[in-house]
Amino acid sequence: MKGLGRSFESLIPTELIDEEFDPTAREDKKSSQLKELRLDAIVRDENQPRRDFDKGALEALAVSIKEHGVLQPIVVTEEDGKYKIVAGERRWRAAKIAGLDKIPAIIRTLDSQNRLELSIIENAQREDLNAIELATAYAKLQNQFNLSAEDIAAKVGKSEQTVHNTLRLLTLPDDAKKFMVKEHLTEGVMRPLVSRDEATIKKLLPKIAKEGWTARQVERYFTVNKKKSSAAAIKRSGYVKDENALSAKYNIPVKITGRSLTFKCQNETTLKDLIKKLK
């Protein structure tokens, strides 16, 4: 299996779509197949409005695919003996550049694809869904249905910023997400922990749960501790304000080290959105 870095079965769920928190995982299994498809058996959707792909970004992805394989399957529907791309055209193009013969793909019928999308949207509108399940539903709509945050917001009746904020919860460590669900912690309480280092999150979570901290108390903790930063810490990073400003502007964790500026994108959709904003 040329080009596959991990075992084929490990490709589902993706790194951000954890089946444990996927409210439609059971239904998805009934309507989806995961297979390796030949690249020449796959065609793009001519009704897909996006036709321009940054050549440099494709080359970079191709290099990554050569080293690690295709870690997230594309999604296709079968039509007239061919497989039409629903989501993942960029990965398909990069796989061609990388010289792969095959690519992992989730195959659905058009009807099952439509039914599953409606089911995810209906689940995302449920009031009893916890924030991690909701974020997982949003991520699935992004990664497997080619929907933007703006599209998702319109379909579920939320603001685009609300969708972005909820999605950011998926960047928390796995243990933090599980703790959040177990202790019924709110999205508001957890949001200030996004982008914090894992050790700090692990230290704070039991205290937050035991003492019933509000979102404001969590924010105050970081404000107070920021003021107490030692001179050594300030010397080590003279760009904290710039990192925070860029993180807020692009809704992505940012790190400045030496002369390097790093945007820590957690998935391909976030990377594509960032590239658009930077152009």
Structure description:
This protein has three domains: 1-171, Conserved hypothetical protein from pyrococcus furiosus pfu- 392566-001, ParB domain (Alpha-Beta Complex); 172-228, no CATH class; 237-279, no CATH class. The protein contains 14 helices and seven strands. It has helices at residues 25-31, 55-68, 89-97, 110-124, 131-145, 149-156, 160-168, 174-182, 187-190, 198-211, 215-227, 231-236, 240-250, 268-278, and strands at residues 33-38, 42-43, 74-79, 82-87, 102-108, 254-257, 260-263. The strands form two sheets. Strands 1-5-3-4-2 form a five-stranded mixed β-sheet. Strands 6-7 form a two-stranded antiparallel ribbon. It is globular.
CATH class of the largest domain: Alpha Beta
Question: What's the CATH H-level homologous superfamily of the largest domain?
Answer: Conserved hypothetical protein from pyrococcus furiosus pfu- 392566-001, ParB domain
SSE arrangement, N to C: HEEHEEHEHHHHHHHHHHEEH
Q: Radius of gyration over alpha carbons? A: 20 Å
> How does the overall form come out from the CA principal axes?
globular
Number of helices: 14
Spatial sequence of strands, sheet with the most strands? 1-5-3-4-2
